[in-house]
Design brief:
Shape: globular
CATH superfamily of the largest domain: K homology (KH) domain
Number of domains: 2
Order of helices and strands: EEEHEEHH
Radius of gyration: 18 Å
Length: 138
């Protein structure tokens, strides 16, 4: 049996915005990102970041799934595209997430389906969204 050691990583982010301009994000590890809210400026808005978090988690989870299934060597690339539909009324929220997986590699249909199913089970972000977590203002 393989002894897997997991190294913990600081997680979290701080957003700041002034009277004018765009929000800036800083991760606990020092990563920085400007948030763009104008429709004409390229960049990430808050919903893009939500969709990006789910997409990134699912591609990583698909790779983990293929590894656990013993078929990682067959994996060439995983791509996940996430979009969604925002509610028409209040409260403002995303009502549906549309997730499209693309797996490159020598997989049969059953292996592809299993990787996708296991990726959703593994993904912390999808599990969190499904669980409707409590948000505590501290």
């Amino acid at each position: 049996m393989v002894d897997v050691k997991v190294k913990s990583r600081l997680v979290g982010a701080t957003a700041k915005v002034g009277r004018h301009g765009h929000p800036q994000l800083v991760s606990e590890t020092g990563g920085e990102l400007d948030v763009m809210t104008s429709a004409s400026i390229p960049g990430f808005n808050p919903l893009d970041l939500l969709y990006s978090s789910l997409a990134a988690c699912l591609v990583l989870s698909a790779r983990i799934a293929a590894s656990r299934m013993g078929i990682l060597e067959k994996l060439e690339e995983v791509s996940v595209h996430v979009t969604g539909q925002k509610s028409a009324g209040e409260p403002a929220r995303v009502e549906n997430f549309d997730v499209k997986f693309e797996l490159s590699g020598d997989f049969d249909a059953a292996e592809r389906a299993e990787i996708i199913h296991k990726a959703e089970e593994i993904c912390t972000v999808s599990n969190t969204l499904l669980a409707m977590p409590t948000i505590r203002i501290v």
